[in-house]
Design goal:
The chain is mostly helical. The protein has nine helices and three strands; from the N terminus they run αβααββαααααα. The protein has two domains: 66 residues, Arc Repressor Mutant, subunit A, CATH 1.10.10.10; 140 residues, GntR ligand-binding domain-like (Four Helix Bundle (Hemerythrin (Met), subunit A), Up-down Bundle), CATH 1.20.120. The protein has a three-stranded antiparallel beta sheet with strand order 1-3-2. The N and C termini lie far apart (40 Å).
């Protein structure tokens, strides 16, 4: 059972459910019954209802009148759209970030690259991947655009876990990360943008193919 403090109940419920969804512990299409969640977190339905609304705003949950809340089940077309948006948003971010790279920022990229490689064979690989990409984009100092990029990633991360994307494609994933980091260290903004675009597009294609196979298309 979860014992939550009243002043942070809603935030902690959101964090716990978000983690369960993105880690694949709650599968796409699964119902999120308020009474069950209230029992799990030992709270009333009010913070549960508000938490579900917040998760709906993040694109992870869909709430239907008279039917309840469900974890969003993306279609292949929706994954393709998210991938296209990520290519544009993340490609632009890295292009803007490279001219702003300081020695400290480059050291952070090297640090997160090494950490991502260390966790590549573990269940923490999604967090390592996210931290590496944040270190790439943060120097652009465009917090809204970075927030959008991370929100789009959150929508598809659970499918990366569900279809075991990294275990299936680890060598290419590691090569892509090293190529992106190398372009940053050479301060080649155009090469960095090209590497990020190819990396994101390749990841999206893997997910679309896996999802279509699961759906029998």
């Amino acid at each position: 059972m979860f014992m939550l403090k009243a002043q942070t109940t809603q935030d902690l419920i959101v964090e716990a459910l978000r983690a369960d969804i993105t880690a694949g512990r709650i599968r796409p299409g699964s119902p999120l019954r308020q009474e069950d969640l209230a029992g799990r977190f030992e709270v009333s339905r009010i913070p549960i209802r508000e938490a579900l609304r917040r998760l709906e705003s993040e694109g992870l949950v869909r709430v239907f009148p008279n039917r309840g809340a469900f974890v969003v089940q993306l279609s292949p077309a929706e994954i393709r759209e998210i991938t296209d948006l990520r290519v544009m948003v993340e490609g632009d971010l890295i292009f803007r970030a490279v001219p702003c790279l300081t020695d400290k920022a480059l050291a952070r990229i090297a640090e997160t690259l090494e950490a991502a490689e260390r966790t590549a064979a573990t269940s923490a690989w999604v967090e390592g991947d996210r931290a590496f990409h944040i270190s790439l984009y943060a120097p652009a100092e465009r917090p809204r655009q970075l927030g959008l990029a991370m929100s789009l990633r959150t929508e598809v991360e659970r499918y990366e876990v569900l279809y075991q994307q990294l275990p299936a494609d680890r060598p290419a994933w590691l090569r892509d990360h090293r190529a992106i980091a190398d372009a940053c260290f050479r301060r080649d903004a155009e090469a960095a943008r090209s590497c990020v675009a190819e990396h994101v597009a390749s990841a999206g294609a893997f997910l679309i193919n896996a999802h279509e196979a699961k759906l029998g298309k």
